[in-house]
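Fold Annotation — chain and its backbone

Encoding — discrete vocabulary of local shapes
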Amino acid sequence: LVLMKTLASQLSEDVREMSSAQRQNLHVAAVFACNFTNSLYAMAQEILAYDHIDKDILQALIEETAAKLRGHDAKDVQTGPAVRMDRNVIDKHIAWLQAHGQADKARLYEEMSRIIYERSQQS
């Protein structure tokens, strides 16, 4: 165990001991935070590509969003039409997606908006 900690410390400054249950919990959380998020970035790039908008236009916003998380709970820094349940904006976005053959993204948009709103209402 000491050898493993020494080796791990050479690879990363953030080395932590965890039980198997904690590692599984971390993996589930990482899939939400990284894998699902990356898939959403890919969908955003597809949406931008429809009107030939450079995908890099989102980079600053992505970095700003990540920076807001430092020292804050994600729930506390959530912004956007879903938090306000701004149906006017949400419905326009969903209509755009549907009109452009993106029914899967429209369903995901609706569900994510519902989840974001419900979570924003919890204390």
Summary: Residues 30 and 36 are 9 Å apart (CA to CA). The two ends are 41 Å apart (CA to CA). The mean pLDDT is 93.
